Amino acid sequence: MYEASNTQVSEAHSSQSMQQILELQRQSLYQEAFPCAEVRIDRLARLLQILRENKFDLCEAMSDDFGHRSIQQSRITDIGASIEPIKHAIKHVKAWMKNESRKTIFPLGLMGARARVEYQPLGIVGCISPWNFPTQLIFGPLAGILAAGNRVMIKPSEFTPVTSNLIEQLLAENFAQEEIAVIQGGAETGAAFSRLPFDHLLFTGAKSVATHILTAAAENLVPVTLELGGKSPLIVGSDAEVNTAAACAMLGKIMNAGQLCLAPDYALVAEDKLNEFVVKAQQNLQMMYQDLLNNPDYSSIINQRHYQRLTDLVNDAREKGAEIIEFNPANEDFSNQPHYRFLPTLILNPTNDMLVMQEEIFGPILPVKSYQKFEEVIACIHQLPRPLGLYYFGHNKTEIDQVLKRTVSGGVTINDVLMHAAQDDLPFGGVGASGMGAYHGFDGFKNFSHAKAIYFQSKSVYNFVAKQMRPPYKKS
Ligand code: NAD
Protein backbone atom coordinates (compact mmCIF):
# COMPACT_ATOMS: atom_id res chain seq x y z
CA MET A 1 0.00 0.00 0.00
CA TYR A 2 1.29 3.44 -0.71
CA GLU A 3 2.00 5.86 2.09
CA ALA A 4 -0.38 8.49 3.48
CA SER A 5 -0.61 11.70 1.48
CA ASN A 6 1.05 14.93 2.65
CA THR A 7 -1.47 17.71 2.91
CA GLN A 8 -0.97 20.96 0.99
CA VAL A 9 -4.00 22.82 2.35
CA SER A 10 -4.39 24.84 5.50
CA GLU A 11 -5.96 23.10 8.47
CA ALA A 12 -9.27 24.94 8.44
CA HIS A 13 -11.11 23.57 11.48
CA SER A 14 -9.87 23.51 15.02
CA SER A 15 -10.62 20.51 17.13
CA GLN A 16 -12.84 22.78 19.24
CA SER A 17 -15.01 23.91 16.33
CA MET A 18 -15.47 20.27 15.27
CA GLN A 19 -16.54 19.42 18.83
CA GLN A 20 -19.06 22.26 18.70
CA ILE A 21 -20.59 20.92 15.48
CA LEU A 22 -20.73 17.44 16.98
CA GLU A 23 -22.48 18.85 20.06
CA LEU A 24 -24.94 20.75 17.84
CA GLN A 25 -25.77 17.53 15.99
CA ARG A 26 -26.12 15.62 19.25
CA GLN A 27 -28.57 18.15 20.68
CA SER A 28 -30.63 17.98 17.51
CA LEU A 29 -30.48 14.19 17.62
CA TYR A 30 -32.03 14.15 21.10
CA GLN A 31 -35.00 16.11 19.76
CA GLU A 32 -35.52 13.71 16.88
CA ALA A 33 -34.34 10.38 18.19
CA PHE A 34 -36.00 8.19 15.58
CA PRO A 35 -36.72 9.96 12.27
CA CYS A 36 -39.68 8.42 10.45
CA ALA A 37 -39.34 7.08 6.91
CA GLU A 38 -40.71 10.31 5.40
CA VAL A 39 -37.97 12.41 7.04
CA ARG A 40 -35.29 9.99 5.82
CA ILE A 41 -36.73 9.93 2.30
CA ASP A 42 -36.82 13.73 2.26
CA ARG A 43 -33.11 13.86 3.15
CA LEU A 44 -32.26 11.28 0.50
CA ALA A 45 -34.37 13.15 -2.07
CA ARG A 46 -32.42 16.34 -1.34
CA LEU A 47 -29.20 14.45 -2.07
CA LEU A 48 -30.66 13.27 -5.38
CA GLN A 49 -31.66 16.79 -6.30
CA ILE A 50 -28.15 18.10 -5.59
CA LEU A 51 -26.66 15.47 -7.89
CA ARG A 52 -29.18 15.92 -10.68
CA GLU A 53 -29.03 19.72 -10.70
CA ASN A 54 -25.26 20.01 -10.38
CA LYS A 55 -23.93 17.00 -12.26
CA PHE A 56 -22.11 19.05 -14.89
CA ASP A 57 -20.52 21.38 -12.34
CA LEU A 58 -19.44 18.41 -10.26
CA CYS A 59 -17.88 16.69 -13.29
CA GLU A 60 -16.05 19.91 -14.24
CA ALA A 61 -14.84 20.31 -10.67
CA MET A 62 -13.46 16.75 -10.62
CA SER A 63 -11.72 17.36 -13.94
CA ASP A 64 -10.14 20.55 -12.56
CA ASP A 65 -8.89 18.64 -9.53
CA PHE A 66 -7.34 15.85 -11.61
CA GLY A 67 -5.80 18.20 -14.19
CA HIS A 68 -8.04 16.34 -16.59
CA ARG A 69 -10.65 13.71 -15.86
CA SER A 70 -13.00 12.25 -18.47
CA ILE A 71 -16.39 13.94 -18.05
CA GLN A 72 -18.22 10.87 -19.37
CA GLN A 73 -16.36 8.64 -16.95
CA SER A 74 -17.22 10.99 -14.06
CA ARG A 75 -20.88 10.82 -15.05
CA ILE A 76 -20.74 7.03 -14.72
CA THR A 77 -18.41 6.57 -11.76
CA ASP A 78 -19.39 9.54 -9.61
CA ILE A 79 -22.80 10.85 -10.65
CA GLY A 80 -24.57 7.64 -11.75
CA ALA A 81 -22.84 5.60 -9.07
CA SER A 82 -24.10 8.07 -6.44
CA ILE A 83 -27.64 8.41 -7.79
CA GLU A 84 -28.36 4.67 -7.98
CA PRO A 85 -27.71 3.80 -4.29
CA ILE A 86 -29.73 6.84 -3.19
CA LYS A 87 -32.67 5.82 -5.40
CA HIS A 88 -32.37 2.28 -4.06
CA ALA A 89 -32.43 3.57 -0.48
CA ILE A 90 -35.50 5.76 -1.16
CA LYS A 91 -37.30 2.75 -2.63
CA HIS A 92 -36.49 0.35 0.20
CA VAL A 93 -35.99 2.38 3.37
CA LYS A 94 -39.51 1.77 4.67
CA ALA A 95 -39.07 -1.99 4.36
CA TRP A 96 -35.57 -1.86 5.87
CA MET A 97 -36.92 0.01 8.92
CA LYS A 98 -39.49 -2.69 9.70
CA ASN A 99 -39.00 -4.50 13.00
CA GLU A 100 -37.81 -8.10 12.62
CA SER A 101 -39.71 -10.63 14.64
CA ARG A 102 -37.38 -13.25 16.22
CA LYS A 103 -37.97 -16.61 17.92
CA THR A 104 -37.87 -16.86 21.71
CA ILE A 105 -36.36 -19.89 23.45
CA PHE A 106 -38.71 -22.84 23.92
CA PRO A 107 -41.35 -22.76 25.43
CA LEU A 108 -41.51 -19.00 26.14
CA GLY A 109 -43.09 -18.18 22.77
CA LEU A 110 -45.89 -20.67 23.40
CA MET A 111 -46.55 -18.90 26.68
CA GLY A 112 -46.95 -15.51 25.03
CA ALA A 113 -43.44 -13.99 25.17
CA ARG A 114 -42.25 -12.12 22.08
CA ALA A 115 -38.86 -11.01 20.74
CA ARG A 116 -37.88 -8.64 17.99
CA VAL A 117 -35.06 -6.56 16.55
CA GLU A 118 -35.58 -2.85 15.98
CA TYR A 119 -33.09 -0.95 13.83
CA GLN A 120 -32.22 2.29 15.56
CA PRO A 121 -30.06 5.13 14.20
CA LEU A 122 -26.54 4.94 15.62
CA GLY A 123 -26.46 8.72 16.06
CA ILE A 124 -23.64 10.76 14.54
CA VAL A 125 -21.50 9.11 11.89
CA GLY A 126 -18.10 10.52 10.87
CA CYS A 127 -17.16 9.95 7.23
CA ILE A 128 -13.59 10.44 5.98
CA SER A 129 -13.29 10.16 2.20
CA PRO A 130 -10.46 9.90 -0.36
CA TRP A 131 -9.74 11.81 -3.58
CA ASN A 132 -10.13 9.10 -6.23
CA PHE A 133 -13.96 9.25 -6.44
CA PRO A 134 -14.53 12.51 -4.59
CA THR A 135 -18.27 12.66 -5.23
CA GLN A 136 -19.24 8.98 -5.15
CA LEU A 137 -17.39 8.24 -1.93
CA ILE A 138 -19.35 10.97 -0.13
CA PHE A 139 -22.82 10.54 -1.67
CA GLY A 140 -22.70 6.71 -1.83
CA PRO A 141 -22.10 6.28 1.92
CA LEU A 142 -24.64 9.05 2.64
CA ALA A 143 -27.35 6.82 1.11
CA GLY A 144 -26.90 4.26 3.89
CA ILE A 145 -26.05 6.73 6.66
CA LEU A 146 -29.14 8.89 6.07
CA ALA A 147 -31.45 5.94 5.35
CA ALA A 148 -30.49 4.64 8.79
CA GLY A 149 -31.61 7.99 10.28
CA ASN A 150 -28.21 9.34 11.35
CA ARG A 151 -26.57 12.74 11.41
CA VAL A 152 -23.23 12.96 9.64
CA MET A 153 -19.98 14.90 9.64
CA ILE A 154 -17.90 14.54 6.48
CA LYS A 155 -14.13 15.10 6.02
CA PRO A 156 -13.47 15.13 2.26
CA SER A 157 -10.03 14.84 0.68
CA GLU A 158 -7.76 17.87 0.53
CA PHE A 159 -6.45 16.67 -2.86
CA THR A 160 -9.70 17.54 -4.65
CA PRO A 161 -10.27 21.06 -3.26
CA VAL A 162 -12.50 22.27 -6.13
CA THR A 163 -14.88 19.32 -5.73
CA SER A 164 -14.72 19.37 -1.93
CA ASN A 165 -15.57 23.10 -1.86
CA LEU A 166 -18.47 22.63 -4.28
CA ILE A 167 -19.86 19.68 -2.29
CA GLU A 168 -19.55 21.65 0.95
CA GLN A 169 -21.42 24.57 -0.61
CA LEU A 170 -24.19 22.37 -2.11
CA LEU A 171 -24.72 20.42 1.11
CA ALA A 172 -24.81 23.66 3.16
CA GLU A 173 -27.45 25.08 0.81
CA ASN A 174 -29.64 22.01 1.16
CA PHE A 175 -29.05 20.71 4.68
CA ALA A 176 -28.86 22.22 8.14
CA GLN A 177 -25.50 21.75 9.83
CA GLU A 178 -27.33 19.60 12.39
CA GLU A 179 -28.08 17.14 9.59
CA ILE A 180 -24.86 17.17 7.54
CA ALA A 181 -21.69 19.13 8.23
CA VAL A 182 -18.55 19.25 6.08
CA ILE A 183 -15.15 19.72 7.71
CA GLN A 184 -12.37 20.61 5.30
CA GLY A 185 -8.67 20.18 5.85
CA GLY A 186 -5.76 17.83 5.39
CA ALA A 187 -4.16 15.05 7.40
CA GLU A 188 -3.94 17.10 10.59
CA THR A 189 -7.64 17.95 10.45
CA GLY A 190 -8.35 14.30 9.59
CA ALA A 191 -6.41 13.17 12.64
CA ALA A 192 -8.37 15.54 14.93
CA PHE A 193 -11.62 14.52 13.21
CA SER A 194 -10.95 10.82 13.80
CA ARG A 195 -10.51 11.49 17.53
CA LEU A 196 -14.08 12.84 17.88
CA PRO A 197 -16.50 10.73 19.93
CA PHE A 198 -18.69 9.70 17.00
CA ASP A 199 -21.19 6.86 17.23
CA HIS A 200 -19.54 5.34 14.17
CA LEU A 201 -16.64 6.28 11.90
CA LEU A 202 -16.45 5.33 8.23
CA PHE A 203 -12.99 5.71 6.72
CA THR A 204 -12.27 5.16 3.03
CA GLY A 205 -8.60 5.46 2.17
CA ALA A 206 -5.13 4.00 2.46
CA LYS A 207 -4.14 1.14 4.74
CA SER A 208 -1.27 3.20 6.16
CA VAL A 209 -3.75 5.85 7.38
CA ALA A 210 -6.26 3.25 8.60
CA THR A 211 -3.92 2.22 11.43
CA HIS A 212 -4.04 5.84 12.72
CA ILE A 213 -7.82 5.84 12.38
CA LEU A 214 -8.18 2.66 14.45
CA THR A 215 -5.88 4.01 17.16
CA ALA A 216 -7.75 7.34 17.31
CA ALA A 217 -11.18 5.69 17.33
CA ALA A 218 -10.10 3.33 20.10
CA GLU A 219 -9.73 6.29 22.50
CA ASN A 220 -13.53 6.69 22.55
CA LEU A 221 -14.42 3.09 21.62
CA VAL A 222 -15.90 4.36 18.37
CA PRO A 223 -16.84 1.47 16.07
CA VAL A 224 -15.32 1.79 12.61
CA THR A 225 -15.90 0.70 9.05
CA LEU A 226 -12.65 0.70 7.09
CA GLU A 227 -12.90 0.71 3.29
CA LEU A 228 -9.34 0.18 2.07
CA GLY A 229 -7.68 -1.15 -1.08
CA GLY A 230 -5.06 -3.76 -1.84
CA LYS A 231 -3.77 -6.00 -4.57
CA SER A 232 -6.85 -7.44 -6.26
CA PRO A 233 -5.87 -10.34 -8.57
CA LEU A 234 -7.32 -11.05 -11.99
CA ILE A 235 -7.10 -14.74 -12.91
CA VAL A 236 -7.25 -16.00 -16.48
CA GLY A 237 -8.36 -19.61 -16.05
CA SER A 238 -7.61 -22.68 -18.17
CA ASP A 239 -10.68 -22.26 -20.43
CA ALA A 240 -11.05 -18.48 -20.30
CA GLU A 241 -12.08 -16.41 -23.30
CA VAL A 242 -8.82 -14.51 -23.42
CA ASN A 243 -10.14 -11.51 -25.32
CA THR A 244 -12.88 -10.94 -22.74
CA ALA A 245 -10.40 -11.24 -19.88
CA ALA A 246 -7.96 -8.83 -21.56
CA ALA A 247 -10.71 -6.33 -22.42
CA CYS A 248 -11.99 -6.33 -18.83
CA ALA A 249 -8.47 -6.07 -17.40
CA MET A 250 -7.75 -3.03 -19.56
CA LEU A 251 -11.07 -1.39 -18.69
CA GLY A 252 -10.24 -1.82 -14.99
CA LYS A 253 -6.85 -0.22 -15.63
CA ILE A 254 -7.89 2.78 -17.73
CA MET A 255 -11.02 3.72 -15.77
CA ASN A 256 -9.94 6.74 -13.69
CA ALA A 257 -6.45 5.81 -15.00
CA GLY A 258 -6.44 2.81 -12.68
CA GLN A 259 -6.92 5.01 -9.57
CA LEU A 260 -9.60 2.66 -8.36
CA CYS A 261 -9.62 0.66 -5.13
CA LEU A 262 -11.12 -2.28 -7.02
CA ALA A 263 -8.90 -2.12 -10.11
CA PRO A 264 -7.40 -5.48 -11.05
CA ASP A 265 -3.95 -4.95 -9.57
CA TYR A 266 -2.11 -7.82 -11.25
CA ALA A 267 -3.01 -10.67 -13.63
CA LEU A 268 -2.31 -14.39 -13.25
CA VAL A 269 -2.55 -16.00 -16.68
CA ALA A 270 -2.37 -19.68 -17.65
CA GLU A 271 1.04 -20.09 -19.33
CA ASP A 272 -0.33 -21.20 -22.72
CA LYS A 273 -2.52 -18.08 -22.83
CA LEU A 274 0.09 -15.47 -21.86
CA ASN A 275 1.06 -14.31 -25.36
CA GLU A 276 -2.54 -14.12 -26.50
CA PHE A 277 -3.46 -12.14 -23.36
CA VAL A 278 -0.71 -9.58 -23.98
CA VAL A 279 -1.69 -9.18 -27.67
CA LYS A 280 -5.40 -8.86 -26.83
CA ALA A 281 -4.69 -6.35 -24.05
CA GLN A 282 -2.90 -4.08 -26.54
CA GLN A 283 -5.59 -4.56 -29.19
CA ASN A 284 -8.26 -3.56 -26.68
CA LEU A 285 -6.32 -0.46 -25.67
CA GLN A 286 -5.96 0.37 -29.37
CA MET A 287 -9.73 0.09 -29.83
CA MET A 288 -10.28 2.58 -26.99
CA TYR A 289 -7.51 5.08 -27.75
CA GLN A 290 -5.84 6.30 -30.96
CA ASP A 291 -3.88 8.80 -28.87
CA LEU A 292 -3.59 9.64 -25.18
CA LEU A 293 -1.86 12.96 -24.47
CA ASN A 294 -4.92 15.16 -25.11
CA ASN A 295 -7.59 12.48 -25.39
CA PRO A 296 -10.64 13.67 -23.40
CA ASP A 297 -11.50 10.06 -22.50
CA TYR A 298 -8.24 9.44 -20.65
CA SER A 299 -7.83 10.75 -17.10
CA SER A 300 -4.73 12.16 -15.44
CA ILE A 301 -2.95 10.96 -12.34
CA ILE A 302 -4.05 13.12 -9.41
CA ASN A 303 -0.72 14.81 -8.67
CA GLN A 304 3.03 14.84 -9.21
CA ARG A 305 3.71 12.71 -6.14
CA HIS A 306 1.55 9.85 -7.39
CA TYR A 307 2.90 10.25 -10.95
CA GLN A 308 6.43 9.90 -9.58
CA ARG A 309 5.37 6.93 -7.41
CA LEU A 310 4.08 5.11 -10.52
CA THR A 311 7.20 6.03 -12.52
CA ASP A 312 9.33 4.58 -9.70
CA LEU A 313 7.32 1.32 -9.72
CA VAL A 314 7.97 0.82 -13.45
CA ASN A 315 11.67 1.79 -13.16
CA ASP A 316 12.15 -0.62 -10.27
CA ALA A 317 10.61 -3.49 -12.30
CA ARG A 318 12.73 -2.57 -15.34
CA GLU A 319 15.94 -2.49 -13.29
CA LYS A 320 15.10 -5.89 -11.81
CA GLY A 321 14.73 -7.42 -15.27
CA ALA A 322 11.00 -7.33 -16.14
CA GLU A 323 9.85 -6.79 -19.70
CA ILE A 324 7.91 -3.50 -19.90
CA ILE A 325 5.31 -2.79 -22.60
CA GLU A 326 4.11 0.81 -22.69
CA PHE A 327 1.05 1.67 -24.75
CA ASN A 328 1.67 4.91 -26.63
CA PRO A 329 -0.46 4.57 -29.82
CA ALA A 330 0.47 7.95 -31.38
CA ASN A 331 4.08 7.97 -30.14
CA GLU A 332 3.45 11.16 -28.22
CA ASP A 333 5.97 12.91 -26.00
CA PHE A 334 4.79 12.72 -22.38
CA SER A 335 7.88 14.37 -20.90
CA ASN A 336 6.59 17.99 -20.85
CA GLN A 337 2.87 17.59 -20.38
CA PRO A 338 0.91 20.14 -18.30
CA HIS A 339 -0.75 17.41 -16.21
CA TYR A 340 0.17 13.89 -15.22
CA ARG A 341 -1.07 11.42 -17.79
CA PHE A 342 0.57 8.05 -17.36
CA LEU A 343 0.91 5.52 -20.19
CA PRO A 344 -1.00 2.25 -19.75
CA THR A 345 1.81 -0.22 -19.01
CA LEU A 346 2.12 -4.00 -18.90
CA ILE A 347 4.90 -5.56 -16.82
CA LEU A 348 5.55 -9.12 -17.95
CA ASN A 349 6.49 -11.89 -15.55
CA PRO A 350 7.32 -9.71 -12.55
CA THR A 351 9.10 -11.29 -9.59
CA ASN A 352 8.11 -10.99 -5.95
CA ASP A 353 11.04 -8.72 -5.13
CA MET A 354 9.66 -6.00 -7.43
CA LEU A 355 7.78 -3.17 -5.71
CA VAL A 356 4.99 -3.52 -8.23
CA MET A 357 4.19 -6.96 -6.74
CA GLN A 358 4.30 -5.64 -3.17
CA GLU A 359 2.34 -2.37 -3.13
CA GLU A 360 -1.16 -1.48 -4.24
CA ILE A 361 -0.50 0.07 -7.69
CA PHE A 362 -3.41 2.55 -7.99
CA GLY A 363 -2.54 3.52 -11.56
CA PRO A 364 -2.68 2.17 -15.15
CA ILE A 365 0.06 -0.45 -14.69
CA LEU A 366 -0.70 -4.19 -14.92
CA PRO A 367 1.89 -6.78 -13.93
CA VAL A 368 1.14 -10.04 -15.75
CA LYS A 369 2.40 -13.30 -14.25
CA SER A 370 2.02 -16.70 -15.87
CA TYR A 371 1.30 -19.97 -14.07
CA GLN A 372 1.50 -23.64 -15.01
CA LYS A 373 -0.69 -25.27 -12.37
CA PHE A 374 -3.77 -23.68 -10.82
CA GLU A 375 -2.35 -24.39 -7.37
CA GLU A 376 0.23 -21.63 -8.08
CA VAL A 377 -2.64 -19.13 -8.41
CA ILE A 378 -3.96 -19.98 -4.95
CA ALA A 379 -0.44 -19.88 -3.49
CA CYS A 380 0.30 -16.48 -5.08
CA ILE A 381 -2.90 -14.94 -3.68
CA HIS A 382 -2.08 -16.31 -0.22
CA GLN A 383 1.39 -14.71 -0.28
CA LEU A 384 -0.20 -11.26 -0.29
CA PRO A 385 -2.59 -9.61 2.20
CA ARG A 386 -6.29 -10.32 1.66
CA PRO A 387 -7.51 -8.29 -1.35
CA LEU A 388 -10.60 -6.13 -1.76
CA GLY A 389 -11.69 -7.74 -5.04
CA LEU A 390 -10.88 -10.87 -7.01
CA TYR A 391 -11.67 -11.58 -10.66
CA TYR A 392 -11.75 -14.98 -12.32
CA PHE A 393 -12.24 -15.56 -16.04
CA GLY A 394 -13.28 -18.98 -17.29
CA HIS A 395 -15.95 -21.63 -16.80
CA ASN A 396 -14.00 -24.43 -15.14
CA LYS A 397 -16.12 -25.41 -12.12
CA THR A 398 -13.18 -26.86 -10.20
CA GLU A 399 -11.15 -23.69 -10.63
CA ILE A 400 -14.10 -21.49 -9.67
CA ASP A 401 -14.66 -23.64 -6.61
CA GLN A 402 -10.97 -23.40 -5.66
CA VAL A 403 -11.02 -19.63 -6.02
CA LEU A 404 -14.22 -19.18 -4.01
CA LYS A 405 -13.43 -21.67 -1.24
CA ARG A 406 -9.65 -21.36 -0.84
CA THR A 407 -9.10 -17.60 -1.10
CA VAL A 408 -10.47 -14.80 1.07
CA SER A 409 -11.29 -11.42 -0.50
CA GLY A 410 -13.82 -8.66 0.10
CA GLY A 411 -15.80 -9.71 -2.99
CA VAL A 412 -15.53 -11.67 -6.23
CA THR A 413 -16.69 -11.11 -9.81
CA ILE A 414 -16.59 -14.05 -12.20
CA ASN A 415 -16.09 -13.26 -15.91
CA ASP A 416 -15.97 -9.49 -15.47
CA VAL A 417 -14.36 -6.86 -13.24
CA LEU A 418 -15.81 -4.49 -10.60
CA MET A 419 -19.42 -5.60 -11.05
CA HIS A 420 -19.99 -7.15 -7.60
CA ALA A 421 -19.50 -3.65 -6.17
CA ALA A 422 -22.21 -2.24 -8.45
CA GLN A 423 -24.92 -4.51 -7.02
CA ASP A 424 -27.11 -2.60 -4.56
CA ASP A 425 -28.11 -5.83 -2.88
CA LEU A 426 -24.58 -7.11 -2.16
CA PRO A 427 -22.45 -5.93 0.78
CA PHE A 428 -19.36 -3.98 -0.29
CA GLY A 429 -16.28 -4.06 1.89
CA GLY A 430 -12.89 -5.59 2.48
CA VAL A 431 -11.53 -8.27 4.74
CA GLY A 432 -8.27 -8.30 6.67
CA ALA A 433 -5.88 -5.75 5.17
CA SER A 434 -8.50 -4.55 2.66
CA GLY A 435 -10.89 -3.36 5.35
CA MET A 436 -13.55 -4.23 7.87
CA GLY A 437 -17.30 -3.78 7.82
CA ALA A 438 -19.39 -3.36 4.69
CA TYR A 439 -22.05 -1.07 3.30
CA HIS A 440 -24.29 -0.62 0.20
CA GLY A 441 -28.03 -1.26 0.19
CA PHE A 442 -29.62 -3.08 3.13
CA ASP A 443 -26.14 -4.04 4.39
CA GLY A 444 -25.30 -0.32 4.54
CA PHE A 445 -28.53 0.43 6.40
CA LYS A 446 -27.67 -2.30 8.91
CA ASN A 447 -24.03 -1.18 9.18
CA PHE A 448 -25.14 2.33 10.17
CA SER A 449 -27.97 1.15 12.47
CA HIS A 450 -28.00 -0.41 15.90
CA ALA A 451 -29.87 -3.73 15.86
CA LYS A 452 -31.60 -3.40 19.21
CA ALA A 453 -32.71 -6.67 20.83
CA ILE A 454 -36.13 -6.32 22.48
CA TYR A 455 -37.92 -8.97 24.55
CA PHE A 456 -41.52 -8.65 25.72
CA GLN A 457 -42.22 -10.79 28.75
CA SER A 458 -45.62 -12.44 29.12
CA LYS A 459 -47.47 -12.72 32.36
CA SER A 460 -47.63 -16.49 32.22
CA VAL A 461 -43.89 -16.90 31.64
CA TYR A 462 -43.24 -14.47 34.46
CA ASN A 463 -45.54 -16.31 36.84
CA PHE A 464 -44.56 -19.89 36.05
CA VAL A 465 -40.93 -19.75 34.94
CA ALA A 466 -39.25 -16.55 36.09
CA LYS A 467 -40.40 -17.03 39.66
CA GLN A 468 -38.72 -20.45 39.78
CA MET A 469 -35.38 -18.76 39.16
CA ARG A 470 -35.50 -16.94 42.47
CA PRO A 471 -34.32 -18.42 45.78
CA PRO A 472 -35.18 -20.22 47.89
CA TYR A 473 -34.52 -22.90 45.21
CA LYS A 474 -36.57 -26.08 45.34
CA LYS A 475 -35.85 -29.40 43.65
CA SER A 476 -37.97 -28.54 40.59
P1 NAD B 1 -5.64 8.59 2.23
O1 NAD B 1 -5.78 7.55 3.30
O2 NAD B 1 -4.33 9.25 2.04
O3 NAD B 1 -6.69 9.76 2.52
C1 NAD B 1 -8.05 9.49 2.79
C2 NAD B 1 -8.60 10.54 3.73
O4 NAD B 1 -7.93 10.41 4.98
C3 NAD B 1 -8.39 11.97 3.27
O5 NAD B 1 -9.56 12.71 3.53
C4 NAD B 1 -7.24 12.45 4.14
O6 NAD B 1 -7.23 13.83 4.41
C5 NAD B 1 -7.49 11.69 5.43
N1 NAD B 1 -6.30 11.51 6.26
C6 NAD B 1 -5.00 11.52 5.89
N2 NAD B 1 -4.21 11.29 6.96
C7 NAD B 1 -5.03 11.14 8.02
C8 NAD B 1 -4.83 10.87 9.41
N3 NAD B 1 -3.61 10.72 9.92
N4 NAD B 1 -5.91 10.75 10.21
C9 NAD B 1 -7.15 10.88 9.70
N5 NAD B 1 -7.43 11.14 8.41
C10 NAD B 1 -6.37 11.27 7.58
O7 NAD B 1 -6.17 7.88 0.92
P2 NAD B 1 -6.24 8.48 -0.53
O8 NAD B 1 -4.88 8.58 -1.08
O9 NAD B 1 -7.11 9.69 -0.53
O10 NAD B 1 -7.09 7.31 -1.27
C11 NAD B 1 -6.49 6.20 -1.87
C12 NAD B 1 -6.65 4.94 -1.03
O11 NAD B 1 -8.00 4.74 -0.72
C13 NAD B 1 -6.20 3.68 -1.78
O12 NAD B 1 -5.52 2.81 -0.91
C14 NAD B 1 -7.52 3.06 -2.22
O13 NAD B 1 -7.47 1.66 -2.42
C15 NAD B 1 -8.42 3.42 -1.07
N6 NAD B 1 -9.81 3.44 -1.49
C16 NAD B 1 -10.66 2.50 -1.02
C17 NAD B 1 -11.99 2.49 -1.44
C18 NAD B 1 -12.98 1.48 -0.94
O14 NAD B 1 -14.18 1.73 -1.05
N7 NAD B 1 -12.55 0.36 -0.39
C19 NAD B 1 -12.43 3.46 -2.34
C20 NAD B 1 -11.54 4.40 -2.80
C21 NAD B 1 -10.22 4.40 -2.37
Automatic annotation (TrEMBL):
The active site is at E227. Transmembrane segments: none annotated. Keywords: NAD, Oxidoreductase. Residues 37-454 form the Aldehyde dehydrogenase domain. Pfam families: Aldedh (PF00171). The keyword Oxidoreductase applies. GO terms for molecular function: coniferyl-aldehyde dehydrogenase [NAD(P)+] activity. Signal peptide: none annotated. Coiled coil: none annotated. SUPFAM superfamilies: ALDH-like. The keyword Oxidoreductase applies. InterPro entries: Ald_DH/histidinol_DH, Ald_DH_C, Ald_DH_CS_GLU, Ald_DH_N, Aldehyde_DH_dom, Aldehyde_DH_NAD(P). Belongs to the aldehyde dehydrogenase family. This is Aldehyde dehydrogenase. It comes from Aliikangiella maris.
